[in-house]
Amino acid sequence: MPCHRSALHAVLLIAAALTALAGPARAEDIPGRQLYVDHCASCHGVNLEGQPNWKVRLPTGRLPAPPHDSSGHTWHHSDRQLFRIVKDGPGAIMPGYQTDMPGFGAVMSDSEITAVLDYIKGTWPDRQREIQAAKSAADPG
Ligand code: HEC
Prior knowledge:
Blueprint: H1 2-25, H2 32-39, H3 41-44, H4 79-88, H5 110-122, H6 126-137
Heme C binds near residues 86, 99 and 102.
């Protein structure tokens, strides 16, 4: 019955196409590493190393981008603070603060922000992860 077989074939093709579409198109499936490279690496460095002399203020009086690895202080913040810094900018937790760090709420979804932070956290050694997890537990929001 060639007729039935080609109908089945068409159904299988459509199913395969839908599966392909549903996969990488979903925001939560975009790996945090890729989101980091796309949105953060230009300032914080491809290897999370931050900008040179990141502890020294720029002529503008603002701070350069700090590293996100364990040599920086990203791990000093709770999950809730980190999410707000990335979504709304550091001014969200320090009103009036002058900074070169933009908020990403207009260009990244909440799940993308969580994914990029999970990527950053995944690069830390156990000690930093444990300290940061304790801070998050003490700051549920
Ligand atoms: C245009 C440059 C720029 C880009 C792009 C950028 N940042 Fe920043 N970021 C900064 C600067 C500068 C600071 C330091 C802010 C300050 O204290 O003034 C900072 C600070 C931060 C902090 C606070 C770190 C701490 O220890 O207090 C976090 C968290 C952060 N950025 C995450 C991100 C993430 C995640 C992305 C990508 C989604 C990103 N940043 C993209 C410039 C940038």
